[in-house]
## 1
Amino acid sequence: MTADLSQISHSELVSLSRQGNRAALARLISKIERRSQDTEELIGALFQHTGNAQVWGFTGPPGAGKSTAVDQVIRILRARGHSVAVVAIDPSSPFTGGAILGDRIRMQQHASDPGVYIRSLATRGRHGGLSHATKEVVMALDASGFDFILVETAGVGQTELDILKLAHTVCVLLVPESGDSIQVMKAGLMEIADIFAVNKSDRPEADKLVRELMLMIGLAENASRRGHAPPVLKTEAVRSQGMDALVDACIEHGAHIRKTGLLAEKQTEFLAEEVFDVLSEQLRISFVSSMSSDTGKQLIKELLEKKLSPYQVANALSGRMA
Ligand SMILES: Nc1nc2c(ncn2[C@@H]2O[C@H](COP(=O)(O)OP(=O)(O)OP(=O)(O)O)[C@@H](O)[C@H]2O)c(=O)[nH]1
Ligand SMILES: [Mg+2]
């Protein structure tokens, strides 16, 4: 375990991480986060080991109790003998002020447990969605042998919806005071939720929100669910009420998607998306270098002089980049 990690090959790093070496895993993730030249080789070394973990997403409005719930889910899955990795996305977001510290303190009880690994990622994609790096970090955790990977996303816009491109099971946490259920419709949460948890159910109006959600689910017809209407559960994460039922609902959803073939469809979609992300990243890098070349500068000059249209410039560049 004392190997100098800076000296070893990428495949050795992956292999150490798979043996449970957390320093190797941390290094692997940092490299992926940095988008270094090494990423291609690293993903090449770990890809064959992916595809075994169940990925659960936890999303919902800021302060809904996602981290508290994730903390309980870790405890329950550990008690059932599973290993668990957690990725908290974008905890530095202004919407979640101070959450990094909060999460660290709350989840500290798991720090000495070798079956738990927790990582915060301050990465956000170029268009506000989940970044390419985030998806590859999940791949690295999957390849490292974790049974479950829990992803917490701060409930802000696109990141919230993008969890669908990463998680097999999406759990949306709401709180009674988060406003009426119309907000759920507007935010597109109805389409992404496999399970609703009405957290802070110790507060008044929890039952009202549960009723409204059930009504909306009854009205919404979503063929892609294949007979899986999202259950609405009442939870109180701080006192661990309803949390076993939430874990059971996630496990049941996992079994449902395996049985119906939806899991295979999701895996295909996720991988196609990964290839698209790789292509986009390559194109962007290639574009940036083309722009600084003499030809690139000349094309931009002609664009400014209106001798060429943006499409003509794009065509000229893509011809060169192909
Ligand atoms: N009353 C009550 N408070 C809760 C419950 N669950 C969580 N909280 C509290 O709500 C606050 C926010 O909880 P977090 O778990 O940090 O919420 P979060 O959704 O992760 O927040 P962000 O990551 O900042 O979006 C904390 O003070 C929790 O103790 C609950 O069931 N009932
Ligand atoms: Mg949180």
## 2
Amino acid sequence: MVRVTAGVEAHTHEYIATAHEDQKFGFSITGGDAMEAVRRLRAAAGIDLLGLHSHIGSQIFDTSGFEVAARRVLALHARISDELGVELPELDLGGGFGIAYTTQDDPAEPAQLATEMTKIVEHECRAFDVAVPRLSIEPGRAIVGPSTCTLYEVGTVKEVALDGGARRTYVSVDGGMSDNIRTALYDADYSCTLASRGSDASPVLGRVVGKHCEAGDILVKDEFVPGDIAAGDLLAVPGTGAYCRSMASNYNHALRPPVIAVRDGVARAVVRRETVDDLLSTDVGVESNS
Ligand SMILES: Cc1ncc(COP(=O)(O)O)c(C=O)c1O
């Protein structure tokens, strides 16, 4: 497949919007690079070019961006048919289907998205008078993200005064940007909830931060938490099944936490907790001359 940039800016953070022109991914359609790539691949021995591929970004909640991308990519698909005499058999519109990280997120059902995207592609193909190619998509987080939440233990709590008389409660926990880099990396939003007990205390504006030596080590930027939140409480952050363990690091030699599968009241580790021995296992040591 040829990855093309369709010039669509999905409604998402700049670092996870991947089809506008000013970035590293893909061959530009408008600049002519995509057509040139197709020409060269068609001429190359041993290459079986299946079709065009576009991925416009992540955390997308409606199909309007896909509609514009499909129209532009299918315009190129039709041009390839006209100029090179070949109707490519496949079209890949990438992933990016949003999931609920916060209580405000309201993702569409996969079946509804599939129906809408199929309609868009069929409509555009009729307009360009080309056969409907085999359509594929690449959902990532929509499959695995909602399956998992991260449990943190609260360490310390402090309240700060903000401009205008407002206050914010900083809740520091036993993890951070080493197990979830998304907030620090591209300003991702999360909600969280007190998981170890109920509380009738009035909610206060909270910010959940990690244990690392960085002011930007933030996990949940803004969330109302019970006013009596205290050391030892457990906080759950939802939607962490994608791009958290897989992007976790040993930042400052922090050990990565385990992944626990829970079903019908039974828990088992599917990825065990890292140990200091794991961390040092690649250390070859220094040969002594004595
Ligand atoms: C080319 C491509 N396809 C699909 C995906 C999956 O994206 P998401 O998990 O947002 O569905 C990505 C994510 O980076 C990607 O780069």
